[in-house]
Amino acid sequence: MGSSQKIGFDKANSLFKYLVKYREKLQRSKEKQISQSPFLLLSNLFERNIFSNESCSIDTLFIFGKLNKQLEDDFYISLTADQKLAFSIGKTFRGGSALKFSVLEMKNVFLLTIRIFKTIISFSISILDSILIIALCFSYICFFKIRKNRKSSLINREIDELYSIHYWYTKKSKSPIHYYPDFNLSQTRLAYVSTFFQYRFICRGLIDALSEKNIITALDFVDIPMLIKSIKAWIDLYLFDFAMLKTVSLGRIVSNIDSFKLLNARLYSVLSYYLSEYILRTFHPKSIYLWGENQLTTKAFSIGLARNSMSPETANLKLYTFFGYPYNRNHFPHLTPSLFELKHHVWASNNFMFLDKYSEDEMRIALDRYHSTINYVSPRNTLNRYISSSLDPKEEKAVCADRRITFFSDSTIHDLTIMLFRFYSSPLIQDNYFKDINTGFFLRLHPSLNLSSVKKNVKSISEKWGLVIPRFQFVDNMNENVATSIQRSRICVFANSSIVNQAINQGKDVIAVKTSFMYDPPILKDKTRNRSVTII
Length: 536
Known about the structure:
β11, α19 (451-465) and β12 (473-474) form a beta-alpha-beta unit. Mean pLDDT is 88; it is low at 98-104.
C-alpha cells in the first residue's frame, strides 16, 4: 500500500485478522506448557477479549503509524484513546528511526503521561486489593467458628444446579436473577461468583457476599494449601507473560503493563480455577450453567470445572456455557470460540446454550469448519432474559410511521459519537437517502446514557468536525417500548444493537453503522443482503 492511500475500516480489519492468526500460531507453540500448567490459559497470550487486554488492536494501529499511513477521518474517530496513541507512537518510529517528536506530537506526549499516571493509580489499587484478598482469606480461614457455621450451612444443602454469575454492587442478592430469571424458583440452586461487577475492591465484594444464602465465592471454601498454590500460579502467570516478550510488540508490552491493573482479578481467577475441583467434590451438582463472555475470571472457572469433571464420579454432570444474550458471528470476535479454545476447555465442555434459534444457527455456521465435539442445547423457557417488546397485530396496525428517522443508541457515548459522525459525514447517505438530512430526527437513548452528557457530546462533534447536526427530539423510553419506536420510524439507524434485526423484520429501512474495525454490526447473515439494509 502506498503512503498516499488512506486507511479505513476494511484495511484495518484485514491487518487485525492477520495479527490474530499470528497470535494463534504462538498459542499453539505453547501447548506443551498448557498441558502441564492449564492455568496459563489465563495469561495475556490467550486473551481475546477486545474490551480487556487484547493486544492485536494496538499492534494494528502501531504498524499503520510506523508505515506512515494516513487514516480516514471516520476511521480515526472510531479509535479508542489507546489505539490513537499507538498510531502516534508508530509514527515516531516510521522508517525505523528513533523517536522524532515534533510540536504537533506534544499533545500525544501529554496523553501518554496521563495514561501512565492512570496506570500507576490503577496498579496501586489493584496491588492493595490483592494484599487485602490474601489477608482476608488467611483471616477467614483462621476464624474457625464463623467459617465453620457458614461452610456447614452450605455443604449440607442438596444442590442440583450451580450457576456462575457476576456479582453486582447495586444488585447483590438479585444478581443471579439478572442472568437466570428463574433462579429463585428452586431451593436446590446455588450461584458462584466468577466476577465482581462495579467493585473497585474485590475484597469488599467477598465480604458483601458472605451474607448471601444462595451465593458462594472462593472465600467460602479456600484453605491454606489452595491459597498458597493459587499465589504461586498467580506469580507464574506474570513470569510467563514477560517470557513471551521475546516476541515483542507494542501490543504485548501494553498488555503486560495493563495486566498489573488486573492483579486482583487475576488472583481471584486463579482461586476460582483451583476451587472448581472442591465444588465438584463437595456438592456433586447434576448441572452447571456458566455465563459465557470469554472474560478472564469467567473462563478460569470454566477451565477448572471442565478439567476436573473427567472422572467417573462426574460422568453424569452437564456443563453448559450459557449465551444469555443474542449472538452474532460477525460481531464481537472474542465471543466466537477459536479452535484452540475449544480444544483446551476455555468454553468448558463445549455444550452451548442459546436463547434463540437465530443465535444457535449463527454459532453453528461460525464453528462449522471445526471438527471438535460441539453440542447445542435449548434452554427451558423460564431462562429467557428478554421480555418480548413486540407489538400485537392490532396495535401494530394502529401505529403510524410518523417519524422520518430514529437513531437507536448503544450503551456508550463513544459508540453514539461514531454513529452520528459517520452518518452525517457519509457521502453514501447524502447521495442515496436525503438531500436534506437535518430535520425530523429522533434519538432513542440507551438507559445507561445521561441526557445532558449526550447533548454536550453532540455539540462537540458538530463544532470539532464542522458537521451540521440537528437538534434531536428524544424518545421517552418510559412510555414507549423499542418495538413502538421502530414502528413509528420510516428509517432506523443502529450501531451495535441486536435490535437492528427486529427493525429489519418489521420491514423498515435500516442503516447500520460500523463503529470498530474489529467487528461488524450484529446483523444476521441472511439479512445483510436485504435491499432495505445499508451498512456504512
